[in-house]
Amino acid sequence: LDSWKVPGLSIAVIDGNEVFAKGYGFAALPDKPATPETLWYAASTTKAQTAATLAHLIDSGKYPALANGWSTTISSIIHDDFVLQDSWATEHITLDDAISHRMGMAAHDKAYA
Fold first, then answer.
1. Where is the Beta-lactamase-related domain (predicted)?
2. 110, pLDDT greater than 80
3. How many CA atoms lie within 13 A of 75 on its CB side?
């Protein structure tokens, strides 16, 4: 942590039924320790993690639900939980559309104003 000037982090590794979770360093300077329960602002880092995970799952060929690769519709995987305002979009948006930000959704740019 010191060499990268990172004040703190939390990590969890799950292997079957075994879970390792630990906080290192500080959640807030100068003295609030990081713990496994610390909530971190992840921002856009999840986009790359999600894309990498999907690529791995698709390339593995082990998941019939992903047989159409990046052309798989999201509704075919999580139909009951994926509902957009537009029913056509709900049924036709693919993994590639979502990862590429081509869903036609509003940007919500004022969220940080």
1. 5-108
2. no
3. 10
